[in-house]
């Protein structure tokens, strides 16, 4: 049986995660007392030390105990609020046995600020507190410890991740450079503030059937930063393997291929092609974020006008699509590949049909469309950044299949990552044997993405490979021609 220490900056979801634990079992939830404020600094330090000694004795003797904030919190908040550092902490940690797991929740400053309630800490302290938790996590002598980045994760997903990690635990986590990770988030936050200011002062666009959406979710995962800092998660692996799949499909005669990157974000698809020396015939990346596109043009200045191009576009604007008289979309329909990775869940369900018609108008009968998006599960819920105007932006597997079938032929569906508990009962004996053998070496994160393509309906995220149907839809009207 296991005990858990749940730590992290305020508003990273510690209490919510503990409530998720309580859905799955009976735990004794405890919280260490803060030293009385009327004590001297030295007495406060000793009071806290005795509290932790008593807590560790209970943890070593008991089971199914959850501490909401324990040990690490004193290393961060002691210096901030009581003007001392608990130099006894590393020695105390060595006395904990392996029945206790340290779980530290962390997130981007942007996410924490979006949940901030104004209590206890000041908003300007949040980035430094997040960095300090990362450093204390790396320095901790607790033998079993896990750092969890909660962006894009629901409480159940975090719980499942912890359980899978615990089941496959083999060694302590390597040190991570959290400061470098949050430096990337801070740059992204500054860029978003510039975008908001720009949009606030921008002239109003002309009226159209679907108004330009200026406020939308801009959250983006940066897997390259996580990999550089040796932080591995199944969602991060899934990003890399999507790029690998694109690379696989586009490689044969790549110098003749064209790619329309629909919602290109920070250019992950282009980076994959460029750094793997796949200089294709033509690449066009389109995204609604002006600053993002400006940054990409600057980053790839040596390629722009050669085979690379970027444009700012509202992907839900009806003017992007063709019609019966002129079926080709704004950027033509001669593309070999169109990619749309992790975009649909951010635009709102009311825009889905127009979004699909816009993509459809840029396709011909040979175009291969690859579109990836989470598969909504009501039991798991949606991540905070997939809620659009109070509505879940994700679709269930069945809903996504129905939407795509209206406009495209679905050629293949692959899961990109999944929870093992969702598919392990469906395995054949041969798959089970392979699963067990791979699990001896690979951790649960990698095994989850290796087996996900075999079980798309049980996966948390899928990539759908589609081609154009014989009949097209234009603003709800069917055209029986093959134009």
Write the layout of secondary structure elements.
Elements: E1 3-8, H1 14-24, E2 28-30, H2 41-61, E3 65-68, H3 72-82, H4 89-93, E4 100-106, H5 109-115, H6 126-139, E5 145-149, H7 155-167, H8 178-201, H9 223-228, H10 234-250, E6 258-262, H11 268-275, E7 282-287, H12 290-299, E8 308-312, E9 337-341, H13 352-360, E10 368-374, E11 387-388, E12 391-392, H14 397-407, E13 408-417, H15 420-423, H16 429-439, H17 444-451, E14 461-468, E15 472-474, E16 477-479
Parallel strand pairs: 1-3, 1-4, 2-3, 4-5, 6-7, 6-9, 7-8, 9-10
Antiparallel strand pairs: 10-14, 11-12, 13-14, 15-16
Helix pairs in contact: 1-7, 3-6, 6-8, 10-11, 10-17
Task: Tell me about this structure.
There is one protein chain. This protein is α/β, with parallel strands linked by helices and 483 residues long. It folds into two domains: 3-150, P-loop containing nucleotide triphosphate hydrolases (Rossmann fold), CATH 3.40.50.300; 222-479, 3-Layer(aba) Sandwich (Rossmann fold). Helices cover 39% and strands 17% of the residues. It has 17 helices and 16 strands. The chain has helices at residues 14-24, 41-61, 72-82, 89-93, 109-115, 126-139, 155-167, 178-201, 223-228, 234-250, 268-275, 290-299, 352-360, 397-407, 420-423, 429-439, 444-451; strands at 3-8, 28-30, 65-68, 100-106, 145-149, 258-262, 282-287, 308-312, 337-341, 368-374, 387-388, 391-392, 408-417, 461-468, 472-474, 477-479. A seven-stranded mixed beta sheet has the order 8-7-6-9-10-14-13, sandwiched between helices. β6 (258-262), α11 and β7 form a beta-alpha-beta unit. α6 (126-139) packs antiparallel against α8, α10 packs across α11 (268-275) and α10 packs across α17. The N and C termini lie far apart (64 Å).
């Amino acid at each position: 049986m296991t005990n858990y220490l749940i730590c992290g900056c305020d508003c990273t979801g510690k209490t919510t995660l503990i409530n998720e634990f309580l859905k799955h079992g009976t735990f004794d939830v405890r919280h260490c007392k803060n030293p009385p404020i009327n004590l001297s600094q030295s007495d406060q330090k000793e009071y806290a030390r005795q509290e932790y000694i008593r807590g560790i004795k209970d943890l070593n003797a008991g089971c199914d105990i959850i501490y909401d904030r324990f040990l690490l919190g004193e290393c961060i908040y002691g210096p901030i609020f009581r003007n001392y550092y608990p130099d006894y902490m590393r020695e105390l940690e060595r006395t904990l046995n392996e029945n206790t797991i340290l779980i530290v929740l962390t997130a981007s400053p942007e996410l924490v600020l979006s949940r901030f309630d104004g209590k206890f800490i000041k908003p300007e302290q949040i980035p430094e507190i997040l960095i300090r938790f990362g450093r204390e996590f790396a320095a901790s002598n607790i033998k079993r410890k896990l750092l969890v980045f909660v962006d894009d994760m629901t409480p159940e997903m975090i719980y499942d991740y912890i359980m899978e990690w615990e089941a496959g635990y083999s060694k302590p986590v390597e040190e991570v450079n959290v400061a470098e990770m949050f430096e990337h988030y801070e740059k992204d936050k500054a860029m978003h503030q510039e975008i908001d200011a720009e949009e606030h002062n921008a002239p109003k666009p002309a009226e159209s059937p679907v108004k330009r959406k200026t406020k939308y979710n801009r959250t983006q995962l940066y897997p390259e930063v996580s990999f550089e800092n040796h932080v591995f998660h199944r969602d991060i692996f899934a990003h890399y393997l999507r790029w690998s799949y694109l690379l696989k499909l586009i490689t044969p005669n790549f110098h003749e291929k064209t790619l329309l990157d629909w919602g290109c974000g920070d250019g992950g698809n282009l980076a994959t092609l460029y750094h793997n020396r796949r200089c294709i015939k033509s690449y066009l990346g389109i995204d609604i974020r002006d600053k993002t596109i400006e940054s990409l043009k600057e980053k790839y200045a040596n390629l722009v006008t050669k085979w690379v191009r970027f444009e700012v576009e509202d992907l839900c604007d009806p003017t992007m699509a063709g019609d019966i008289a002129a079926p080709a979309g704004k950027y033509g329909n001669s593309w070999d590949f169109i990619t749309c990775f992790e975009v649909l869940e951010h635009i709102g369900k009311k825009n889905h049909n127009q979004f699909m018609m816009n993509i459809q108008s840029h396709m011909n009968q040979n175009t291969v469309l690859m579109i990836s998006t989470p598969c909504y599960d009501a039991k798991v819920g949606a991540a905070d950044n997939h809620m659009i105007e109070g509505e879940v932006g994700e679709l269930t597997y069945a809903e996504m299949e129905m939407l795509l079938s209206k406009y495209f032929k679905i050629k293949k569906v692959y899961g990109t990552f999944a929870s093992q508990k969702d598919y392990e009962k469906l395995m054949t004996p041969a798959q089970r044997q392979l699963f067990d053998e791979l699990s001896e070496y690979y951790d649960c994160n990698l095994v989850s993405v290796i087996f996900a393509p075999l079980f798309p309906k049980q996966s948390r995220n899928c990539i759908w490979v589609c081609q154009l149907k014989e009949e097209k839809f234009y603003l709800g009207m069917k055209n029986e021609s093959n134009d």
